[in-house]
């Protein structure tokens, strides 16, 4: 007789964290782009950030792992708590925040001349993580498997990252970010440069990953937000005012019974 009991998936070592943004305001010079944004992104769930261009989603996402300190000059008020600990606390190292809170960008950015194998391991050195040769082989296989890429590339791990298709490159970037075992993964429009098939593969990966890493995804694709996310936040910056969250909650409710008329208009494609 076939045993139909499905065991709950237990992920060894997985430790997804709850990320909470509290009263985040941000400025570029004197231009205020976010106004007191608060949001809880629950552990082991997918949170989608939606809203029109220019309302501060990418800025907000970068603030969540201190990436804005590296690539923009935004100044900031508010706190970001990773399981209750402020990642901006004096004494907490910026590299620590970025290791625990990984990021995948819109445009796939593997190291093009570096082998697939070394691409996956690229973050270890930066984070001073040592692994034995066997440990490295296992980690590369594990991360590529989780990113849904192992079967396609296992016989050509020495090829350069740049030799892959766009969708494969994005999955390689996901594998690379998983190798340091982040507790949260931030994704800024990870599929908007990809074709529908590659997009679907990434969505499947997101669904499988969320039990081990909290995911926050910015997307302009409302069907995608509805498919992949458990909770959703709608950002808006109207008429030059800074971005705020108009509404947030369970994704089903946001899409089928939004409380705010502007949310209803946005999710139904009316602006
Ligand atoms: P979204 O991701 O929702 O499209 P962004 O966070 O990219 O929005 O941008 C929010 C606002 O901040 C916009 O008005 C944008 O012009 C401005 N902005 C974004 N990045 C910078 C930057 N590096 N320097 C100055 N202004 C910026
Ligand atoms: Mg953006």
From TrEMBL:
<dbReference type="InterPro" id="IPR003593">
    <property type="entry name" value="AAA+_ATPase"/>
</dbReference>
<dbReference type="InterPro" id="IPR005670">
    <property type="entry name" value="PstB-like"/>
</dbReference>
<dbReference type="GO" id="GO:0005524">
    <property type="term" value="F:ATP binding"/>
</dbReference>
<dbReference type="GO" id="GO:0016887">
    <property type="term" value="F:ATP hydrolysis activity"/>
</dbReference>
<dbReference type="InterPro" id="IPR027417">
    <property type="entry name" value="P-loop_NTPase"/>
</dbReference>
<keyword id="KW-0547">Nucleotide-binding</keyword>
<feature type="domain" description="ABC transporter">
    <location>
        <begin position="19"/>
        <end position="267"/>
    </location>
</feature>
<keyword id="KW-1278">Translocase</keyword>
<dbReference type="GO" id="GO:0016020">
    <property type="term" value="C:membrane"/>
</dbReference>
<keyword id="KW-0067">ATP-binding</keyword>
<dbReference type="GO" id="GO:0005315">
    <property type="term" value="F:phosphate transmembrane transporter activity"/>
</dbReference>
<dbReference type="InterPro" id="IPR017871">
    <property type="entry name" value="ABC_transporter-like_CS"/>
</dbReference>
<protein>
    <submittedName>
        <fullName>Phosphate ABC transporter ATP-binding protein</fullName>
    </submittedName>
</protein>
<dbReference type="GO" id="GO:0035435">
    <property type="term" value="P:phosphate ion transmembrane transport"/>
</dbReference>
<dbReference type="InterPro" id="IPR003439">
    <property type="entry name" value="ABC_transporter-like_ATP-bd"/>
</dbReference>
<dbReference type="Pfam" id="PF00005">
    <property type="entry name" value="ABC_tran"/>
</dbReference>
<keyword id="KW-0813">Transport</keyword>
């Amino acid at each position: 007789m076939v045993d139909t009991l499905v065991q709950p998936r237990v992920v060894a070592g997985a430790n997804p964290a709850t990320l909470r943004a509290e009263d985040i305001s941000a400025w570029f010079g004197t231009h205020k782009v976010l106004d007191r944004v608060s949001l809880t992104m629950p552990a082991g769930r997918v949170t989608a950030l939606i809203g029109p261009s220019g309302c501060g989603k990418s800025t907000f996402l970068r603030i969540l792992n201190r990436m804005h300190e590296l690539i923009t000059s935004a100044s900031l008020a508010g706190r970001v708590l990773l399981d209750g600990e402020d990642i901006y606390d004096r004494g907490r190292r910026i590299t620590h925040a970025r290791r625990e809170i990984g990021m995948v960008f819109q445009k796939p950015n593997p190291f093009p001349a570096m082998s697939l194998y070394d691409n996956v391991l690229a973050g270890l050195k930066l984070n001073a993580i040592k692994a034995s040769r066997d440990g490295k082989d296992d980690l590369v296989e594990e991360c590529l498997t989780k990113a849904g890429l192992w079967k396609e590339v296992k016989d050509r791990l020495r090829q350069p990252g740049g030799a892959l298709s766009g969708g494969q490159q994005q999955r390689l970037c996901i594998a690379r970010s998983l190798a340091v075992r982040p507790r949260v993964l931030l994704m800024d429009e990870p599929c908007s440069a990809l074709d529908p098939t590659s997009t679907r593969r990434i969505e499947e990966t997101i669904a499988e990953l969320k039990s081990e890493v909290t995911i926050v995804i910015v997307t302009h694709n409302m069907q995608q937000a509805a498919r992949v996310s458990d909770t959703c936040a709608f950002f808006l910056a109207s008429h030059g005012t800074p971005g705020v969250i108009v509404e947030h909650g369970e994704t089903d409710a946001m899409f089928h019974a939004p409380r705010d008329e502007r949310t209803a208009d946005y999710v139904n494609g009316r602006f």
